Amino acid sequence: MTDSSPDDVLDDLINPTSMDGGSPGQDGPILEVENLTTAFATPAGPLTAVDDVSFTLRRGQALGIVGESGSGKSVTARSIMRLLPKSNVFTSGRVVMDGIDMMSLNDKQLRDIWGPEVAMVFQDPLGSLNPVMRIGQQVAEGLRVHHGVSKREARATALSLLQSVGIPSPEVRIDDYPHQLSGGMRQRVVIAIALACGPKLLIADEPTTALDVTVQAQILDLLQDQQRERFMPLILITHDLGVVAGRTDEVIVMYAGRIMERAPTQVLFRDMKMPYTEALFRSIPKVEYPSHTKLAIIPGRPPNMIEPPKGCKFADRCRYAQEQCREEEPELTPAMDTDHVYRCFYPVGSAEGNEALARNMETGRLTADGELTGVS
Ligand code: ADP
Ligand code: MG
């Protein structure tokens, strides 16, 4: 790679041509997660943060993972990346990324794949950057480590990357330190770092939560553009169902460490089955109000994950819940549509669901407006 121009380097990263022999083809899955379970030992007992999560991500696909705070989204991502603390954590299940069995890798092997295989963007851009290193060097670092390119080449490629993530006057900014940039610009730099090694999968965990609302949209657009341009699978994690609409192909809705519903994005918005998904939908911030005014948060609190209730984990907060829901946890079951699964005995829009709502109104569990009583 030593004679190639910076643009060639960038082209290689954007359009990797040399497919390593053993890896699955263009249409095969880039990521397979099977029965992933992660528990933390806590003073009060084991806390199961991720409980039997399975899903597959295809090449070029954008997957949203949505759920309230504490639902297990970050622990899922960190379990996949093998980025969890070393002690007091128990992970089981299977994670295969681009043909690599993630669970079998040692620390050195993990360092080799973080960057070229999979990269992650976190919520807080400042925390992800080194405060005493110029941004250009930080973007170039991965290229030097993983691709062994010369200093000059790496700088030129960093410049192209900074340009492609929308940093204005990148030839000047390349020598800035993180504190000289705004929050949105810092997150662009973090994205450039994540893209630098041409990852085969990008995981963005609440990448815009720390940013103000106009900047949020720009960063999400940038991620989406990069995802499409590079045909790069993306996992976009957010607490805001509104964020995944129009930006992902498929959505997983999580609650209490479980997948509650999974569907192609358009199917989910048109025909959501889970009352929890509906509750999230009702809580999407409306554009006419500032995004930080939570209009309708879901009443009640997520369950204690050390001693979760035995039935459906959402039952206490659910407008549809019946006796059965407290007794028995529904399995993930397929809907009529292909690729759509959910776990509920009284799904939204079904005859059973409508009867459950009517019964809950009769008993006074719901107000005449259909709002839950006795939960706040
Ligand atoms: P989300 O990203 O959806 O907001 P997380 O995945 O961070 O939620 O957390 C899921 C659950 O795991 C929460 O109950 C959280 O308190 C717990 N948890 C996360 N990290 C740890 C840890 N290091 N030790 C103990 N519990 C943890
Ligand atoms: Mg999180």
Ligands bound to this protein structure:
adenosine-5'-diphosphate, magnesium ion
Give the amount of beta strand, in percent: 15-25%
**What's the number of helices?**
14
CATH topology of the largest domain: Rossmann fold
Report the average pLDDT across residues: 90
CA distance, first residue to last residue: 61 Å
Helix content: 25-40%
Radius of gyration: 22 Å
Helix and strand succession? HEEEHEEHEHHHHHEHEHEEHHHEEH
What spatial form do the alpha-carbon principal axes imply? elongated
How would you portray this structure in words?
Strands 6-7-8-3-9-10-12-11 form an eight-stranded mixed beta sheet, with helices on both faces. Strands 2-1-4-5 form a four-stranded antiparallel beta sheet. It has two domains: 6-29 and 57-85 and 102-254, P-loop containing nucleotide triphosphate hydrolases (Rossmann fold); 257-285 and 305-362, no CATH class. 34% of the residues lie in helices and 20% in strands. It is built from 14 helices and twelve strands. The protein has helices at 6-14, 73-81, 107-113, 125-128, 135-147, 151-164, 170-173, 183-196, 213-229, 241-244, 265-270, 275-282, 323-327, 351-362; strands at residues 29-42, 45-58, 62-66, 89-97, 100-101, 118-121, 201-205, 234-238, 250-255, 258-264, 333-334, 341-342. Helix 6 crosses helix 8 (183-196) and helix 8 runs parallel beside helix 9 (213-229). The chain starts with 5 loop residues before the first helix and ends in a 14-residue tail after the last helix. It has 376 residues and is α/β, with parallel strands linked by helices. Mean pLDDT is 90; it is low at 9-24. Bound molecules: adenosine-5'-diphosphate (ADP) and magnesium ion (MG).
